[in-house]
Every structure is written in C-alpha cells, then in structure tokens.
Amino acid sequence: MTIHIGAAPGDIAETVLMPGDPLRAKWAAERFLENPRCVNEVRGMLGFTGTWQGHPVTIHGSGMGMPSLSIYANELIRDYGAKTLIRIGSCGAMQPQVALRDLVLAMSATAVSTPSSTIFRELTYAPTADFSLLEAAAATARARGLAPHVGGIYSSDTFYDERPDLDEQMVRHGILAVEMEAAELYTLAARYQCRALAILTVSDHLPSGERLSSADREQSFSDMVEIALETAFSTQ
Ligand code: HPA
Known about the structure:
Helix 2 (66-78) runs parallel beside helix 6 (182-191) and helix 4 packs across helix 7 (214-234). The protein has 7 helices and 9 strands; from the N terminus they run βαβββαββααβαβαβα. It has a 5-stranded mixed beta barrel with strand order 5-8-7-6-9. It has helices at residues 22-32, 66-78, 117-120, 131-143, 164-172, 182-191, 214-234, and strands at 15-19, 34-40, 47-52, 55-60, 84-93, 103-110, 149-155, 177-179, 195-205. The protein is α/β, with parallel strands linked by helices. The structure holds hypoxanthine (HPA). Hypoxanthine binds next to strand 5, strand 8 and strand 9.
C-alpha cells in the first residue's frame, strides 16, 4: 500500500494500461480482462488487475494532467514494479490531416513543463516512446485496417488555454495533437528503465472545432484497449 494506491504488494501486474478516467479503467477491465478485481479505490482512482489471454494486466486510472499521472506512475513503477505502461487516452488534433477518430501514436511529447522539469535545469529533455512498443502498436493498428499517425505530440499543462501562441508554434512544427499526460509518463519510464507508450484517439479537432460523440468515444476507447493489450504482449 502506498500513499495513493491501496493495492497489496503483488496486486499490480508488470503491464499497466492507464486511461485518464477511472471509470474507463473499470469498464475496460470488466470488458477485456479475465477475472478482474479492484485493487485500488483510494480517492476514487480505480485500478483493476486480471489477465488477458493468460497474461497478468492492471488497468489503472491516471487522472487528468501530468501532476496526477506522475503520482500514480511513480508509485506503480517504484513501489509495485510496473515495467510496461501504456497510456490510452484522447487528444485534440492539431494538423488538418489528423481527423476525428484517427489514432495517434506519440513518438515524442513536447511540454512547457512537467513535474520532472526542475531536475533538468537548463536542459530541454526530449521525452520519447519506447521504440519496441511504438513499432508494435503501429503494426497492430495497421493489421486492424487503421492508419495510425506516428509523430510528436504536445503534452499541455492546461485544457483551458490562455496562450494560443503555444499551440501555434506546435502546429507550425508539425506536432500532431495535444493531450496532457504523455511527457511525464515517458520521462518517468526513462528514469526507471521501463517501457512506455501513449496511444491516443482524436476526440476533438482544433482546426475545425469538431468533437466526437460519446458513443464514438466509447468505440475508439475499446479499439485502443485491444491495440494496447496486443502491443504489450507481442513485444515481450
Ligand atoms: N487539449 C488538451 N487535452 C486534450 C484535448 C485538448 O484540446 N483534447 C483531448 N485532450
């Protein structure tokens, strides 16, 4: 048991899928895992452990934003021995060719700041995905008839943004999409020799203002869970 996770030692699998929303963690565990059991409910941040095709898997919420994700990822890695962490979440498309519902695999994640930035001092650290996971996720998505976008994303500190100029620079530099968690996940994974990847679906499209319906969000979420599970275990 840690400050924010009530699981007993051994209750967390080495492979952890991390949606932002704890209720999505519950939904995914009940739908895709065999024998899911709730291993955390501290502060309503739900985590479940079960098996997928015989492999132990934990699906644990991260909450929204890097400070929240950082708390859970730190404890999952350092106290419970998580080794492969895959974020499954939504993002806002920043380029015209990235359409609503499209899949984005984050090769790198740019940020103004992360909970880790202070340790880098004058360095601009480049948080990057684990290549074996990235490659496997791209192949898995393509085998399902999807055409994932693979490239840089922007992990923003704000959803309600008062600095539109930052988005402008991201768009200008080819950044595919914006979300709020991946840069810190990649940084922590690098620090503790773990593997991490963010698999994202476009839920809103910044250039056009379009948004996904909740039914579409649910379908795309289920596609991401399946791709994340296949990816994690095709690379071990
Ligand atoms: N901004 C930040 N995070 C997001 C967005 C957005 O527009 N859409 C989905 N996650």
